[in-house]
Amino acid sequence: MILITGATGTIGSEVVRLLAARGVPHRALTRDPARARFGPGTEVVRGDYDDPSSLNAAVTGVDAVFMVTAPRAASPGAHDLALLAAARAAGVRRAVKLSAIGTGDPGIGPGGAWHVPGEQALRDGPLRWTVLRPSMFASNLLWWAGDIRAGRPVPDQYGGGAQGVIDPSDIAAVAVEALLTDDHHGRTYTLTGPETLALSDMTTLLGKVLGRDVPSVDVTEAESRAFVRSLGIPEEAVDGVLEGLAYVRAGHNAIVTDEVERVLGRPPRTFAQWATEHRAAFE
Ligand SMILES: NC(=O)c1ccc[n+]([C@@H]2O[C@H](COP(=O)([O-])OP(=O)(O)OC[C@H]3O[C@@H](n4cnc5c(N)ncnc54)[C@H](OP(=O)(O)O)[C@@H]3O)[C@@H](O)[C@H]2O)c1
């Protein structure tokens, strides 16, 4: 039995889909089972990191857990530690944690520390563990789907900084491999797509798929700050997020690795493939 946290989210929902397709028993955690939509083969459980006692039922009878830290949480470390405490007490054997590229690098600012407590707790044992540190998700472009549909330019928060943009389905596929065997125990994988892309490269590639121009535009720091605030990020965390964007602007996240291919035995999917599959969201 595999427990998937963040099961309604970007990567977790894809992990659910892949496990269901392989016929692996699995349980999807959400704060609101009434709102969640899963197929008949998926067991659903209510759980909330902010209510640690709710996690005990979720981990009962579980062999492996996929750990997703809620984005923009006030205390992401506490969320991971609450889940791991429940998992340890229930005798869960294995955990795969969705972390982020560059975790622990002080140059990223506070955002670089979000996943540190959870990663460290895994390394301290006793569970078998794998840490996944993906680069920017291709799906982040969906944040601007409304602008793109309306023909408005996409504001480039990354200032032309390139990143090893990755298709979320590749992250989920790696997670499933790590959840099902001990072959990836003790490994920290930095997961990227096959090429580094600036936001303007992504919009150009999407434009080719849509058959029309998809412009992007540079933004000032004040505009970037307004955008970050609009995501609902707590005021005290806004400067930290901007520090992370400055890190990307300076080119420090222009990294490509071969770790997706080493785990899956095939190259990572391209941004153009992702854009083709998701074109309806932008039309
Ligand atoms: N976006 C990127 O480019 C990127 C790159 C690298 C790493 N990451 C990491 O990926 C992770 C996921 O980010 P995302 O933006 O894609 O989010 P997401 O997984 O799409 O959505 C967040 C998930 O967290 C769950 N959740 C929120 N608060 C919760 C709580 N209190 N208790 C239990 N579950 C809770 C939500 O479930 P319910 O609402 O159903 O309860 C939802 O499934 C983050 O940790 C982020 O650091 C993102």
Question: Main attributes?
Answer:
two-stranded parallel sheet; alpha/beta; binds NADP nicotinamide-adenine-dinucleotide phosphate; 283 residues; 14% strand
Summarize model confidence as the mean pLDDT: 95
- What is the CA-based Rg, rounded? 19 Å
| Hetero groups | NADP nicotinamide-adenine-dinucleotide phosphate
Specify the oligomeric state: single chain
Estimated share of beta-strand residues: 5-15%
The neighbouring-strand order within the major sheet is 3-2-1-4-5-6-8
Major beta-sheet overview: 7 strands, parallel
Helix content: 25-40%
Structural class: alpha/beta
* Count of runs of 4 or more consecutive helical residues: 11
The stretches of 5 or more residues where confidence is low (pLDDT under 50) are none
Our measurement of the CA-to-CA distance between the termini, rounded to an integer number of angstroms, reads 39 Å
Count of distinct strands: 9
What gross morphology would you assign? Answer: globular
SSE topology string: EHEEHEHEHEHEHEHEHHHH
Task: Give the topology.
Elements: E1 2-4, H1 10-21, E2 26-30, E3 43-46, H2 54-59, E4 64-68, H3 76-89, E5 94-98, H4 116-123, E6 128-134, H5 145-149, E7 154-156, H6 168-180, E8 187-191, H7 199-210, E9 216-218, H8 221-230, H9 235-249, H10 259-264, H11 271-277
Parallel strand pairs: 1-2, 1-4, 2-3, 4-5, 5-6, 6-8, 7-9
Helix pairs in contact: 1-6, 3-4, 7-11, 8-9
NADP nicotinamide-adenine-dinucleotide phosphate is lined by residues 5-12, 30-32, 36, 47-50, 68-71, 98, 100, 134, 136-137, 140.
